[in-house]
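[job 4471] stage=fold_predict status=RUNNING
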Amino acid sequence: MEIYINARFLTQQITGVQRFAIEISKELRKMDAQVKFVSPVKVIHNDIASELGVIPIGSSTSHFWEQISLPRYLKRIGSPLLVNLCNTAPLYYSNKVVTIHDVAYKLFPENFSLPFRTYYNFLVPRILQSSRKIITVSNFSKREILKHYKIEENKVDVIYNAVSKEFTPSKKENYEKYILGVSSQSKHKNFDMLIKSFNKIKDKDLKLYIIGEKNRNLNNILTKEHKLNSDVIFTGRVSDQELAELYSNAVCFVFPSLYEGFGIPPLEAMACGCPIAVSNVASLPEVCRDAALYFDPLDMEDIAAKILKVVQNNDMKKTLIRKGFNQVKKYSWEKSANKLVINMKKLYKN
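[job 4471] inference complete, writing structure tokens
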């Protein structure tokens, strides 16, 4: 059973989508020498490419490589099964599996550029139809895909994300008292509401740390809420080791997102022994179950109240930490990779 993995993700910055692809790929590499990885020549994660034994092909990058160079190469070697892990795939190559993480571009078009929306609205329905199997990362995302596209339900299978091994408790004594958020450029991550909610908390010793770069949306909020400047701390991008330390020493992790196909950060926080408060929408109740305190992400009073509930109640913190450790054990990259292999073997039998 010879399978090829589209490793174009090695040319991209790591977000949740690329994290899924990288960790699944590492497990596949351990499990089966028949799995091969192909990528553009110019990768930015050379250590991972070396670990996977990547075969660089073509001279192009980006969409041209995926749509032209990759299928041309595969057809020359007998058209093996191609597994795509990051939302896109070559359109004119039929022996393929595609992973669609969510359909956020459908629900929040204002968060995406016109070229991006145009490309995805053209490409996704066509690759869904032409793929032999569709993978997604939660039952919520499966329902979303079936809602927006005419796809047979049994064609879509769920393979969960998990937590990378770097995320373990790392307690330190020298941290100030802070709650933690992990931000991105997208408005549906809802960090403007978190900052407004934080402003309602009357605790002079409490800080808000936000991981990730400032963006226009957050800068606008900070301008309006100028008195928060000394209490809201943007760390910029951090390494996994630094992030694990920040999770471990926070009094609470808060995830106010309006839409998630899965949502890895709450699981990472659980794995580091951090109590979490998250939105009561999308995939988050499915992923976090009873290991989180839930709030309405559109209600700043509710967000502030739930944060304070965690910060001020030691018994609740201990309960959430214990339940978090138990919940995160339900997910593993090895189990997810095994499920993908089972799906691929079924395709070979057919």
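[job 4471] summary: The domain at 178-328 is CATH 3.40.50.2000 (Rossmann fold).
[job 4471] exit 0
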